[in-house]
Amino acid sequence: MRPLVLFDVDNTLVDRAEGFRRWALEFCSRWRLDADQVPWLEEADGDGLTPKEVFFDRVRKRFGIQEPVASLCDEYRTRKPALIPPCPGVLDGLERLRARGWRIGLVTNGEADVQLATIIAGGLAERVDGSAISGAEGVRKPARRLFELAAERCGAALTPGAWMVGDSLAADVRGGREAGLRTIWIDRGRPLSPDAPRPDFVVSDGAAAIELLIGERERR
Description:
Elements: E1 4-7, H1 16-30, H2 38-45, H3 52-63, H4 69-83, H5 90-99, E2 103-108, H6 112-121, E3 130-133, H7 134-137, H8 144-153, E4 163-166, H9 169-178, E5 182-186, E6 201-203, H10 206-219
Parallel strand pairs: 1-2, 1-4, 2-3, 4-5, 5-6
């Protein structure tokens, strides 16, 4: 049976943090803001967890920008996906997984158009077998149903031998475990607190997760 692995997208396979930094620099240039405002923008963004309507409302108030929130949101959603690079080593790693017979799926929270644009711009679309985006499905990780949809689109099912890889302990590790999957947490330099859900493995980035998967499979 072909093994299955499901990946998160942002800060797992693509460097969402770097893409946001690039967008923030462009935004500062456009609105004639000092580049030293980029850290404030990054903090206000909350690693993508702050709703964009809330984020841009704060931005307008801080910098005295008159453009409506809706317009700023639309511009952001159109531009930012093109600025997000794939994480180092990930595209080659996905090719290696596929060459070894893995089924590869994406399971990601976010707006459908933004996440789809990110997947395409990051070079992921042609390297995976299926995907499930919360904004298109009406259900978010950690709900089991989103993992099930991703697996189904890969022509597979959630089985004890399948994997989930991601950088969110709540969405990816807890959600993956509750869906019966083995999990790999991408820590991005963050500590694992004692009360956090326990992943099977902890690695620093997506490329390291892929190497671990290949090694685990070859040891069997």
